[in-house]
């Protein structure tokens, strides 16, 4: 039994990943701005500070990748 097929499929998916996620640039930038703003100054970054932006980015990633997995 060979795992070669599994690795080939995985490698193919990973190669397509950057192109699939390129459409999420706006959400990634918004999340990055939020994290940078929340971590600026003496205040510490806290959990859920940027939850809305994170969820938007995660949803975009999921939409972008879903068709490529099938």
UniProtKB/TrEMBL annotation:
<dbReference type="GO" id="GO:0005739">
    <property type="term" value="C:mitochondrion"/>
</dbReference>
<dbReference type="InterPro" id="IPR034595">
    <property type="entry name" value="NDUFAF8"/>
</dbReference>
<protein>
    <submittedName>
        <fullName>NDUF8 factor</fullName>
    </submittedName>
</protein>
<dbReference type="GO" id="GO:0032981">
    <property type="term" value="P:mitochondrial respiratory chain complex I assembly"/>
</dbReference>
């Amino acid at each position: 039994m060979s795992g070669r097929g599994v690795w080939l499929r995985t490698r193919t998916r990973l190669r397509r990943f950057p192109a699939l996620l390129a459409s999420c640039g706006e959400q990634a930038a918004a999340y990055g701005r939020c994290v940078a703003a929340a971590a600026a100054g003496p205040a510490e970054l806290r959990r859920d500070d940027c939850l809305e932006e994170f969820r938007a980015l995660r949803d975009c990633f999921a939409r972008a990748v879903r068709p490529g997995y099938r």
